[in-house]
Amino acid sequence: MSMLTIIDFGKRFTIHHLGKTRQAVEQINFSLEKGEFIGIVGKSGSGKSTILKSIYRTYLPDTGGIFYDSDRFGRIDLCQASERQVLYLRKHEIGYVSQFLNVMPRTTSRQLVEQALLEMGESEAVARQEAEKALTHFELDPKLWDTYPNTFSGGEKLRLNIAMATVKKPRLLLLDEPTASLDQQSKLKVREIIEKLKANGTTLVGIFHDIEFMEGLCDKVYDMKERQLVHEVISNEG
């Protein structure tokens, strides 16, 4: 059984003040086996992020199905899953990394990463140890560990975001431009953790503007313009 299968997926958005509806994406089809990594490429506005947000159920698709092989629930259509099921999957099985950090105020970096592990049932001692390892790996200055991230630079916020998602070792990890504001050294750190997660069976769906970053990392590439899988990145579009 595939880990993730998307069948005839489509999503529309209504612009209420204009009284218009816009088709964001349609007729998306692909599947992934456990431990595979698919990269999605296409121009800005082609619907790449819409696919990721629909898998995570931030958006509710209008057509088609998104079937996920859950450790808890078995094969489940994420389009039909209950809110309680979605919350469980986000806590325990599906991770999401966006370009932006959206966290509880007055919570330190260390606490944010620890909380990601505590909500999975880890002990405080294990959570603290693993959080420090993750923050060290992504080279977040120890002076920042016990400060609030609202003062961080864009790159520091992004590294913290990635640490929070990857420390849980999710079964499925969604990456929305995770290297957008990172320097080359930080990108290598992200690549290293992705390779490690893949080796341990994590399935990944990612969007990258940095085409070079994807080379040798993705097992499959989905081209939004062609609406099909391609064997390799064939252009440097979005």
* Number of helical elements: 7
Q: What's the shape? A: globular
Q: Which structural class matches the secondary elements?
A: alpha/beta
| Rg (CA only) | 18 Å
CATH C-level class is: Alpha Beta
| Number of discrete domains | 1
Quaternary assembly: single chain
Please state the second-level CATH architecture: 3-Layer(aba) Sandwich
The tally of beta strands, per DSSP, is 10
Q: How big a fraction of the residues is strand?
A: 25-35%
* Helix and strand run: EEEHEEHEHHHEHEHEE
CA(first)-CA(last) distance: 31 Å
Point out poorly predicted stretches.
233-238
The proportion of residues forming helix, as a percent range, comes to 25-40%
Question: How do the strands line up in the largest sheet?
Answer: 6-7-8-3-9-10
CATH third-tier fold name: Rossmann fold
The CATH superfamily turns out to be P-loop containing nucleotide triphosphate hydrolases
- Name the average pLDDT: 90
Q: Largest beta sheet, briefly? A: 6 strands, mixed
